[in-house]
Amino acid sequence: MKCRVCQNKINTFMSFGKMPIANAFLNKEDFEKEYFFDLSPAFCEKCFAFQIETQPDPQLMFHDNYAFFSKTSKHMQEHFKKYAEWVEKNFLYEKENTFVVELGSNDGILLENFALKGIKHLGIEPSANVAEVAKKNGVNTLINFFNQDIANKVLKEYGKADAILAANVMCHIPNLNEISKSAKILLKDKGVLIFEDPYLGEMIKKVSYDQIYDEHVYIFSALAVENIFLKDDFELIDLLPQITHGGSMRYVLCKKGMRKKSENVKKILNNERKQNLDKLFTYIKFKDNCEASKKRLLDILNENKQKGKKIVGYAATSKSTTILNYCKIGPDLIEYICDTTQIKHNKYSPGMHIPIKPYEEFNKKYPDIAVLFAWNHKTEIELKEKKFEKKGGKFISHIYL
Ligand code: TYD
Ligand code: ZN
User: Is the dihedral of CA 229, 235, 241, 242 positive or negative?
Assistant: First the structure.
């Protein structure tokens, strides 16, 4: 295959096998026509972009029934409030004519912080159902994918932007060259492009291979981000590690030479070179680590099942789709997965068809073991589930935390 960013020829270094759409929770009558694709990550030795070989058509993933609502986590709401305050303090210097844009604004979890302060803002979100929730909450939202056409239209109607923000969205977009060009059109000279996504360095360290699924066409490193946006004369001016989503990175870019560069940039780029994120052998080792992780998880589940223990899943995350399908874990091993998202209830998990139950099911009759698929929300969940652990219940996860 060719690298999506630089067209260099690259090879996939492993396959997780046939995968369904990670967020496509389904009814029994739809099992027969379920869509599968081959989930194979690849690494480009020229621009360092870690990417998946085949990504399903975006319309299959982001549509009117998109099952992910950002506001389900309290910690994430706090995180986005702080993100907004930080943007306002550091980058919204023109008090008079400030304009903030967010790509993939979901239910408005980030932008509502600007809306509440009366700051001019616009969310650009392709999934109508989540966008409607945002609109109801007073977040100005345009239902669309972001591209040069839309950038020009927004420019005409609203003027240039001080900041274009994104969170857990940029890594979903296959054609980043288009995003980079569109951002260049819409941003003021001193405007900033800021986004955060799950971080490659953390994924490699934690062997959290479940970050790899259809939506995440890339898992970024700073080395890759620098190369991706360089073509349109953007430069990295800051890098801020985040604890969200099991370890993320916030990237701050602006038009070349327009703003001061933080010391963090050099430091983190150097760390990445030390971690060999620019070398293929790192990813070949990662493949071995994934296989070892799969074996370990299956051993734990099988052992406990044989002892007659009741095992359920906690949180039907997108990430869990990769774990369940790669390890071939079905309802014989995990009885059901509980989740707080209504739209997922009474449906089945993609591919392996484990029933999804409302969260209350977990409290009604505690299992012996809960596989924590939202391991990135461990602190929040353990606090909520003190009683389960007090009664001898155990959370387990495929990664060492
Ligand atoms: P997240 O890690 O954001 O998921 P993803 O892998 O899809 O990015 O977790 C969100 C999912 O976890 C969502 O389906 C709701 C569920 N969840 C619970 O069921 N209970 C909880 O306490 C939390 C924090 C999340
Ligand atoms: Zn490349």
Answer: negative
d(CA 199, CA 250): 9
Sheet of strand 218-219, all strands in order from the earlier edge strand to the far edge: 41-43, 50-52, 218-219
Nearest atom within ligand 1 for CA of residue 374: 2
For the chain, what percentages of helix, strand and coil (3-state, to nearest 5) are there? Answer: 40, 20, 40
Nearest CA to ligand 1 atom 16: 315
pTM, whole model, 2 decimals? Answer: 0.94
Per-residue pLDDT of the chain (401 residues; tens, 9 = 90+): 999 999 999 989 999 999 999 999 999 999 999 999 999 999 999 999 999 999 888 777 777 777 777 777 788 899 999 999 999 999 997 777 899 999 999 999 999 999 999 999 999 999 999 999 999 999 999 999 999 999 999 999 999 999 999 999 999 999 999 999 999 999 999 999 999 999 999 999 999 999 999 999 999 999 999 999 999 999 999 999 999 999 999 999 999 999 999 999 999 999 999 999 999 999 999 999 999 999 999 999 999 999 999 999 999 999 999 999 999 999 999 999 999 999 999 999 999 999 999 999 999 999 999 999 999 999 999 999 999 999 999 999 998 65
Please name which ligand lies nearest the alpha carbon of 278: 2
Ligand 1 — pocket residues by CB below 6 A? 68, 72-73, 315-319, 339-341, 359, 374, 376-377, 380-381
